[in-house]
Every structure is written in structure tokens, then in C-alpha cells.
Automatic annotation (TrEMBL):
EC number(s) given by UniProt: 2.1.1.-
Keyword Transferase belongs to the record: yes
Protein name: TrmH family tRNA/rRNA methyltransferase
Residue ranges of every copy of the tRNA/rRNA methyltransferase SpoU type domain listed in the record: 127-280
A GO molecular-function annotation: RNA binding
Protein's GO biological process: methylation; RNA processing
Source organism, top-level taxon: Bacteria
Secreted as UniProt keyword: no
């Protein structure tokens, strides 16, 4: 039996987490153990549940609940769980910014503690590292490519958009719940005590774990993405930079390889999400 609660007023407190909480409030930096995130659409929500994330509540358009088979299949997973299923008519829900993109369904879930990046890398041969990729659409697209092209994990620097940001997880089609990921940070529990360990210390840590590091950047000594020695490396970390500026010089200097994707017609670079798909395909294991 589903715990269904009908909502008729957009200002109902039950909608606060969906309609009025900011991303900062959801993340809850002062109490990370109480952090939440919002997943959109039945497919994305289903993949979050498959990954073991714990749901707090669900918000669904009444018509979708009654008529959409994919929505009904996901809702069936909440039978006899006690999870609150808030339902509302479309005219109530259209007041939520971007609701038309959700395919009629949202779910609030608990965040998890982040795993140490060195621990996450154990037993993995191909990892991707994102340096200050701030656009959540690009982060989501990179995760989708990583999942499709056999990457084993994704690491993110502190300047990256969070993969659980609504747009990032939606664009990824839920693959942020399938590919192991974490942020590169030291192990201090309090944020105010943490030191920035990217790039030098973190790259040294990765090399100690047996990884060769490959920075995607255009330099005079860049090797082609299909370089035989590069492709034959047993353990490889592929590093992609922020939109526009690319990788920091300090990062490039610390890497074993600087790698370029050969291009034609005077094109000098690709969007970071497009570049990730090419690189992951070529360097997959």
C-alpha cells in the first residue's frame, strides 16, 4: 500500500524541499549527514533506488501516477515502505521551476558520506578526473559518457558542480548513481580544516597507486589520443579541465602525458563533455 498524500496548495510545507530549498540548503554543509538531493524522472529515480540511496519522499503529478506505466513501476517500489507519496494536479506543480522537464515525478533522497578518493580508486584501471568543471550539464554529460565508455570511476576537484545537482543527475540519465565518484579532498572532517590537495599532492597520490596521468590539453609536447604507449598503460587517470580555460598549468606540469585530440577544419578544441566521450572511447580498457 502506498502512503499517498494529496497536495492542493503550492505553499504547503510538504513542498518546501522541492519548491523552496536551495541547493545549498539541500547539501547542508554544516551537517552533511543530513544532506538531501532531488532526483527527477522515473528513470533517474529508479537508478538512484537501484544504487541504494534512501528516499525521503516522492512528488508526482496525479495524472502521471494514474496513466504513466514507467511512473507506476517506480511507485510500486514504495509499496509498504511508509515513504510519503505527495500527489498534486499539474496546475499546482507547474509553479515549480523546471517541473515540465521532470516527466511528472521528483524524489527527495538522502546523500551519502563521500569516500576517500584513494580508497575509491582501489581495483580500478581507468578513472576520469574533472578539474573545476562548473557547468552541471557538462558534469552530467561526462558521467553519461564515462558509464557508456567503460570508465571505472570519476573524481572531481572542489571547484566542480556536484554530480547530485538536479540538472547534472538528469542529464546523466541517472548514471551518476552507477559510476563510483567522489571529490578529491583531504580526510579532515571539518571543511574549515581542509587543505587544497589538488593538483600536486593528489597526483602524487595517484602515481603512488600505480596510475599514469594524462592531461587533455593543447601544448607543444602533446601526444595524440591514439598514441600506442598511452593506450597501453595498465592504469590511467584521464584529466579534463574547466570550460574555457582548460587545465591549470600546474596540473599539466605534474602529469605523465599531455594529450590532444587531432582535429580538422581549423577547430582547436571541443566542449569538455564532447572531448570526454572521445577520450573515454579511445582510452577505454
Amino acid at each position: 500500500m502506498l502512503n499517498i498524500i494529496e497536495i492542493n496548495n503550492f505553499n504547503a510545507p510538504e513542498l518546501d524541499v522541492y519548491a523552496r530549498y536551495t541547493e545549498a540548503q539541500l547539501l547542508n554543509k554544516d551537517r552533511l549527514e543530513d544532506g538531501l538531493f532531488i532526483a527527477e524522472s522515473p528513470k533517474v529515480i529508479g537508478r538512484a533506488l537501484d544504487a541504494g540511496y534512501i528516499p525521503i519522499s516522492v512528488l508526482v503529478e496525479k495524472k502521471q501516477m494514474e496513466e504513466n506505466e514507467e511512473t507506476q513501476e517506480v511507485l510500486a517500489r514504495f509499496e509498504n515502505t511508509g515513504t510519503s507519496i505527495f500527489i498534486a494536479e499539474f496546475d499546482v506543480l507547474t509553479q515549480l521551476t523546471g517541473f515540465k522537464l521532470t516527466r511528472g515525478m521528483l524524489c527527495a533522497l538522502k546523500r551519502r558520506p563521500l569516500e576517500d578518493f584513494r580508497k575509491l580508486c582501489e581495483g580500478k584501471n581507468r578513472i576520469a578526473i574533472l578539474e573545476d568543471v562548473m557547468n552541471p550539464t557538462n558534469v552530467g554529460a561526462i558521467f553519461r559518457s564515462a558509464a557508456a565508455m567503460h570508465m571505472d570511476a570519476v573524481l572531481l576537484t572542489s571547484g566542480c558542480s556536484n554530480p547530485l545537482y538536479r540538472r547534472a543527475s538528469r542529464v546523466s540519465m541517472g548514471t551518476v548513481f552507477q559510476i563510483p565518484w567522489t571529490f578529491i579532498q583531504d580526510d579532515k572532517e571539518r571543511r574549515c580544516d581542509r587543505k587544497e590537495i589538488w593538483p600536486v599532492q593528489a597526483i602524487e597520490n595517484l602515481k603512488a597507486l600505480g596510475y599514469k596521468t594524462a592531461a587533455l590539453a593543447l601544448t607543444d609536447d602533446s601526444v595524440s589520443i591514439d598514441d600506442p604507449q598511452l593506450m597501453s598503460e595498465e592504469k590511467l587517470a584521464v584529466i579534463l579541465g574547466t570550460e574555457g580555460d582548460g587545465l591549470m598549468q600546474e596540473t599539466i606540469k605534474a602529469c605523465d602525458y599531455t594529450v590532444k585530440i587531432p582535429m580538422s577544419h581549423g577547430v582547436d578544441s571541443l566542449n569538455v563533455a564532447a572531448a570526454s566521450a572521445v577520450a573515454f572511447w579511445q582510452l577505454r580498457k
